Amino acid sequence: TMREVRLVDEQGSLSSYGLVEVRTSHGFASVCGLNQGAANAICEAMGYPGGSIYPHSCSSVGGKNMCGSKGLPVALQNLRCEGAEDSLSQCQWEEPDKSC
After folding, report:
1. Which residues contact 31 (CB under 8 A, 6 or more apart)?
2. Up-side HSE of residue 21: CA atoms within 13 Å toward CB?
3. pLDDT given at position 2
4. pLDDT (tens digit, 0 to 9) for every residue of the chain, 100 residues total?
5. From the CB of residue 78, how many other CB atoms can be counted at a distance below 10 Å?
6. 27 vs 73: CA distance, rounded Å
7. Which terminus of the chain has a lower count of CB atoms within 10 Å, N or C?
8. DSSP secondary-structure letter at 59?
9. Between vectors from CA 10 to CA 46 and to CA 24, what angle results, nearest 5°?
10. What is the rounded CA–CA span in Å between residue 29 and residue 68?
């Protein structure tokens, strides 16, 4: 299931848009980069008709910083899904590197 994922706004509150976070064994951590298929799979699992990605820096999404709190760990980099997955484990990703 997609219960392991959530969207949070610039203040860290649950939201219908914002930073994608995934549950890890140490709590929630961010996702650094995702494709349109991943956005669709995540948002559709949350009951929305689809998702969208913001193609620019997370530091200025509509004038708001959506990069997450300083020190927030990064769990996944370049999350790629087809769009119909029931779980992120069915998608592909890379281990985060220093670019994230």
Report:
1. 19, 20, 21, 22, 38, 74, 75, 76, 77, 79, 93
2. 26
3. 65
4. 566 899 999 888 999 989 999 999 989 999 999 999 999 999 998 889 999 998 878 888 878 888 887 788 999 999 999 988 988 889 999 999 988 8
5. 18
6. 9
7. N
8. G
9. 55
10. 9
State residue 31 phi and psi, 5-degree precision.
Answer: -110, 130
- What type of residue is 31? V
Q: What is the amino acid identity at position 7? A: L
Provide the token pair at 11. 């203040």
- The structure tokens listed for 50 are 């689809």
Amino acid, single-letter form, for residue 27: G
Q: Which residue's entry shows tokens 């990703």? A: 93
pTM: 0.86
